[in-house]
Amino acid sequence: xxxxxxxxxxxxxxxxxxxxxLKDLAATVTDGDAVEPVxxxxxxxxxxxxxxxxxxxxxxxxxxxxETKLGIGPPIKDGFxxxxxxxxxxxxxxxKALTKEMQRIIKQGQRFVRRVVTEEEARAELAxxxxxxxLIGLKGSNPGDDNESVEVGGAELTIYDNVDPxxxxxxxxxxxxxxxxxxxxxxxxxxxxMRTAAAYWRGSEKNPQLQRVYGTAWPTKEExxxxxxxxxxxxxxxxxxxxxxxDLFSFPDEIGSGLAVFxxxxxxxxxxxxxxxxxxxxxxDYELVNTPHITKGQLFETSQHLNWYKDGMFPAMHLxxxxxxxGKVIKPGQDYxxxxxxxxxxxxxxxxxxxxxxxLPLRLAEFGTVYRYEKSGTLAGLTRVRGLTQDDAHxxxxxxxxxxxxxxxxxxxxxxxxxxxxxxxxxxLSTRDPEKFVGSVEQWETAxxxxxxxxxxxxxxxxxxxxxxxxxxxxxxxxxRDAIGRTWQLSTVQLDFNQPELFELEYAxxxxxxxxxxxxxxxxLGSIERxxxxxxxxxxxxxxxxxxxxxxxxxxxxxxxxxxxDGVIAQLxxxxxxxxxxxxxDRMPKKIRTHTKAKVPFQxxxxxxxxxxxxxxxxxxxxxxLNGVPVAEAIERIVNAIKSHEQVNTAWQx
RNA sequence: GCCGACUUAGCUCAGGGGUAGAGCAAUUCCCUCGUAAAGAAUAGGUCACGGGUUCAAAUCCCGUAGUCGGCUCCA
Length: 654
Description:
This protein is an alpha+beta fold. Helices cover 33% and strands 27% of the residues. The chain has five domains: 1-34, no CATH class; 40-229, Threonyl-trna Synthetase, Chain A, domain 2 (Threonyl-tRNA Synthetase, Chain A, domain 2, 2-Layer Sandwich), CATH 3.30.980; 261-293 and 339-536, BirA Bifunctional Protein, domain 2; 294-338, no CATH class; 552-643, Anticodon-binding domain (Rossmann fold, 3-Layer(aba) Sandwich), CATH 3.40.50. An eight-stranded mixed beta sheet has the order 16-22-23-30-27-26-24-25. Strands 6, 7, 8, 12 and 13 form a five-stranded antiparallel beta sheet that branches. A five-stranded mixed beta sheet has the order 32-31-33-34-35, sandwiched between helices.
């Protein structure tokens, strides 16, 4: 018999795992138990640290206002939150006061003491905490989600008392599964309160909203600072900020929320992105189609979009209604809708004439602009908009072709994404939502097993997303990691069991019978706008040369050399390079500063030395130089960098 | 949609019941310059919009729109 304090003298051990279960250090273990230490900077240790910090936050809140009711307070990625039901929403000043109170509690070194209680005892002690009582009621009947199980997820109900180490007095208590740090002092100074927000109780819109306080916590102050630096870095490459700074796009209020305009510099990037994709599509045997932006409602009745997604669609335009003088309708009108998806249109192209098995797989691709009435609170920069252009493809195949076609699609996706400079991928398999699906369970299971197999054969990590599929079929999606490690869901390859039925799509099989094709939805970039934002953040605005709005700027050392540079730049423009000479009256260092800030990949500088040698001097984004490069060679290198999609931030080494 | 914060010049921001401020950008002049900001002058704002309170509102109050942070949602 011993407790964790006796077993582990290392102060970085904050808890222990006994026979696989996390326990407080104060728990006692016997000889037969398998005991492992939990170090504070392990994933478990960080969770415990953060969860304990959440308790301190809650104590601080109730110390300041005892009337505030408690919700839940779990650890999350990089930190923690705690939900409260206060009289009034928290203000920034409240956060300051809470921080002070938390510091006091942490300094006091209160011990976290675990105590098993019966349900009756818990109900009595927590009589004034309605949300906690609700959780106690849920225990057993419903395991709840991870965040709720932090409170009541254990085998027995427990309350943690926060005990003053000097007096032994109980300062505060909370229903909690634990484990916790031995005492609050271990929270140290590597934490901060971040922000407040509202959150629905137990994650449902139907429930009341609580006030959530987010915080972050780390084992040391240094790690906290590193985290804050990472946040600042992410903020610096925020596409909304870069979009303004680099003059790429804007969201004029006059047009409406979530509707972007692309300025010339953003427009040329989009153009290059789309051009490359179009070339890839044609190489991969896609056929390009075009469809209109609006349609009569009947199409979306056939496709069932009006049934499933009407709330997410812009309301109808009611056209062509004719009334007589008395106001009586003598000719009924028609409802037209902005399209939220392209697939019904592609189905009509498929159905425009009889199809033969010889035509399959039939791959129809379009940059189709769709409009979705996203809820106002969900809009965010270019990543969530109301008008977006999908690089949308629909592939019609026979049953036998499905598996090979999906493999081929994944290969195509990887190759194409690499061309944009993204190369770190994993896959996610979204499977049936038992609450919401069409078709038979067998059909789904067969398809899911097939996708699973293809995913595994790809050699990439395959993450399960149970219940994540849309109602009409399972989906395999490609997630890409960007330059600072964030992941984005990009390409999706999705089976559709529903629409071929709804549209009664058919083809003539080799034996002369009519069969139903399988439909695969495939979006490679998701939406052009969102992908634009992802690339912008991935590159922090410093695009590879082929995508850079301005690829080359000529900077004469003095006005006199402008003409010489004009000649060089003219040769580049002839080769299709976006290049200009800066003839402004700024001094040379100022021009360098201006174009460095604009993230132009190549600055070509020329003065007397270069002119007399028939050369130019390169300055790269990072300030490195390559001086006296003969003009012909300079041009070739630039053209090659564009052709090869090379990222150039520093001087070439060879 | 819900909760909260915010909205002042093209951009970043200060100010705050008594006729609107800075830096950068822009324009003009001046300097002729070798790798991240020469100097000077000028112009630029119904302080998001609409109402209210007040002798007086950019400032206080209410409403609307937009943005941001979350929640819910995301075909």
